[in-house]
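Re: your question about GntR family transcriptional regulator

S., sorry for the slow reply, the queue was backed up all week. Below is exactly what I fed in.
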Amino acid sequence: MDQTAHSSTPPGKQMLSEQVYARLRDAIMRGDHPPGAPLKPQDLAKEQGVSLAVVREALVRVVGEGLADRLPNRGFAVPSFSDRRWQEIAEARRTVEPVVLRMSIERGDVDWEARVRAAHHRLVRTPAYAPEESEYYTGAWAEAHRAFHRTLLEGCGNRALLETFDRLWTQSELARRWSAHRNPERDGAKEHRRLEEAVLARDADTAAAVLVQHLTLTAAALTDDSGQAT
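Result:
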């Protein structure tokens, strides 16, 4: 029996769909499509020279990541940025991530500890800003930052929880890219170092508290009223 018979998507079409999805995702994250902008399948298909079916498949995937909204009339649009929306994401992260971090500290093995050290080292050694990338964090730093936070949680061994983290993180990054707020007095490197130290010391209480504080400061930096982010 042909083992590929169960697959409904030909390999060529699947690769094309992946490429279109990746380009659309990157375009949204770069801000090529501003907050609230419609994502018209016909226009996207014409721009990328692909079928409507391929574009719709890519749009469904970015909706699943929280990078687009599906409108009541079955259209698509980039999410509208609002303090309330960001606060909901921040609240979800402050609720979920400290719990998963505790699980990770309890269950993580020596290999996980080594990955945490490596991820932190990479983050420390990656420049956060570059003149050619304007006021935004560099792409390399953004990825190192994501990898560090995800590695902290990977010791939990629960795929469903890690997928929840991935989705919340992606939405957080979109909000971060759109925000014009920046706190030059904040020492993010120190926060990450304290987090790594507490995790490797297997001090779950301290690690969870440091993470909550870290996420709270991030939320405050992305809203007009920092008093809301508590």
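The beta strands are 69-70, 76-77. The longest strand covers residues 69-70.

Happy to talk it through on Thursday.
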